[in-house]
Please model this.
Amino acid sequence: MFPLLRYEGGRGSYDIRTQFIGKIMEKQTSPYKWGMVIDLDRCTGCGACVVACQAENNVGICDKKEISEGRNMHWLRIERFWVGEYPDVRVRFLPVLCQHCHDAPCEPVCPVYASYHNPDGLNGQVYNRCIGTRYCGNNCPYAVRVFNFYNHEWPKPLDNQLSPDLTVRSRGVMEKCTFCVQRIRRAKEDAKGEGRLVRDGEVQPACAQTCPAEALVFGNLADPHSRVARLSRSPRRFRLLEHLGTHPSVYYLKGGGREHV
Amino acid sequence: MSEHPGSSAKSALQLNDELLSSLRPPSLRWYGLAFFLGAVVAWGLYAFTYMVTTDMSCTGLDRPVMWGIYIVNFVFWVGLSHSGTMVSSILRLSQANWRRPILRAAEAMTVFTITVAGLFPLIHLGRNWVFFYLIPYPNQRGLWPNFRSPLLWDATAITTYIIGSSLFLYLGMLPDLAVARDRSRGWRRKLYTILAMGWRGTAREWVIYHKASTLMAALIIPVAVSVHSIVAWDFAVTVVPGWHSTIFPPYFVIGAIHSGVAAVITLMIIIRRAFHLEEYLTPLHFDNMGKLLLVIALLWSYAYFVEVQTTWYAHEPIEWEVFSFMAGNYTPALLLMLFGNSVLPITALCFKRLRRSIGAMLVISLLVNVGMFIERFLIIVPSLSHKNMPFVWGTYRPTWVELSVTAGAFAGFALLYTLFAKCFPIVAVTDVRELDVREASVPFGRTKVPSVVGKE
Amino acid sequence: METLGIFSDVESAARAVECLVRAGFAEAQITSLTSVPYPDGVLVKTGRRSWFRWLTLAGGIAGAGAGFLLAAGTAWLYPVQTGDKPIIAYFPAGIVTYELTMLFAIVSTVAGMFLEMRLPPWGKRPYDPAVAEGCIGISVSIHAGGETVTCGRDMQPDECIGGIASLPVEGQKSRAEEIMREAGALRVIAEGQS
Model:
């Protein structure tokens, strides 16, 4: 049983203080601080994680036309960079998903609180509150937020594949990776029913579950003994766009003896 | 002391007749114009309805350019709304006599442009039908809108500005409505009677009125400055490279005054022609407005120069990438913008002959506004196209839906203005006549000089 | 009750005012009706202070409170964590407070102006549409006096009365009419409650 930790990230904290009156109104603490480690030395760029995410989260199916217009709905994308000149060409893969920043730029700009920060460290998106101003999409430096430009449909019998654990988003609504919050919630409920906390490795988002190279590791960063916490302390670690001060929850690992790639 | 009636100066009746000529029953040409504008508005409405009933894929927006022509329009129209406030208030407070024929047109322009501007935040929503989530009203959801978001500051500021500028326009019109009331019959008389609130023009009413309009002019200027600063903060408070710049609020305010003053000049030229006000909107007025436009053009050029120069010198990679993408991809637009906003006004408006020439002023003022529209576009779209992650760089091209809505907005503004000019006095009658009453040619030395009695 | 005389130009109107004052009417009882403002003293003297600007100030203060409650108060009542921003953030609260201050101040200015002008009027007041065409109206408020009441600085026209008070109401009215016709009034209208 690990101790209850109060997370204090960046300039902000989960202490909801009224600075005006100065007394602590409510303290939102949580034993969980979900995070992910992506080992770029293991990633082969196969794209199984992208497919798994689409299947798990009722993500709209996009055709060639939509993608060529720049309107793909991938919550998780594999960025591919070619390095070097022929015949010495190499390729680098970078899976980019919502970084669940602790100081997320997308959250304060939403005029209706559709994007907010929950005590578990997740950046939440409330679909039925979203009115579609797309300010959060503009302010996300990682461009991981996707907007439902099209009214996606699942003609029968494709609608049988939809997961009942989460909604199917209507047009005009922003969406993004949620770390498969429906799975996290299910695991938390099960654990609560048994009077314990969620064990390390018990909850896996679809991408981490599917990755054949085990490049994606998910877990509770607040638990110092969890696999993800140990990996996030690796000397190979870096985070994307750290100069912006967003404090992402996703760590990338690179440089373990494969520098030639 | 006025000249005695019957002399060469116009009597009050004649002045009233000429300045209020626009209130006569509409001609066929007016109906034709109104019908044409209405048709364009209807087309814009159709395009908007098409977008709302299908989905937003009919626009040119994509990831990462999630704000396009609609927001360009929004910023542009808010900028135009600074016309009336700046021109009218500043000229009132500085007690410049040449303001008198211009005031009403400028103030009316403010009200209608900010109305059109206020529509665009509703037009660009992905789910327009739940726009009321933005309104802070008690509800059972236990949620209020997020006042930390600049969009809510927008909503507050635009509401304040619409109400403020409407009241400013109404206040300015009050004595003129009384004059119109006394000259009209039928439904118009009823309308003016209600609006004139029983104004009789007693000495006490005039004193209070003068104090109130001076106070309103002083109050509306900070509101105008804050409105466009808040719109600028929509961009400046983000982490988008090219947007996150402290110069944005003053830069936007200066740009707004620039486009606003140019638009007032354009409007003055149109009104002068349409309502035969050649004697009241003289080359002197255009001369002075031209000088004002020259000053603002210089200020705008300075602000733009500063913005580019600091980006160039520091050469911070991401910001420089955004700027060079803009300059490389949109070169013709950039050059047209610099020509219309800076080069042409600064060179041409130095010459008194060009300032006094109506044709030249029309061309200059129209080009300024074309340049300002392009400038808004070049601020918004290139920064979004090339954000921080190169893999998701994208482009944007407006579609027929967005262009139709833009055209509908322009036509809507013109239609509102046409309706206004037909129903309400478009020139500040009492203001113009006030100067006429207090002006006289006084023999002084060897000749007669014009002089104005009274403090102002 | 008000007696209104219509004059075609400034000189005759000014003559009428002079005669009225000499006949015993108080300055504050006489006012001019014009479609353009004349400088103070040309027709009548109006040295009054106006109080509606206090309403502007009150409105501004009320707006500041309202704005602060709207931005900071509601955020405190319904706290939702977003990014690194505190629940009650200085700049957003400041901006919204400022906007509502200005809004309330502007609305109070207009409302206060109408209040002080006492518009729209309750009863019918004498008026002639010729005023809009450039004629000047001189209006005398007549009320039963009995005794002279010296006009204070901020008195309303119906509170003070000059030496003419010795005459009954009808006498005052006819005296005023006589003076105005002598000075060259086009017509005299007598009606209404002051």
User: Anything to note?
Assistant: The mean pLDDT of chain C is 85. Chain C touches chain A at residues 72, 76, 79-88 (CB under 8 Å). Residues 90-117 of chain C form the longest helix (28 residues).
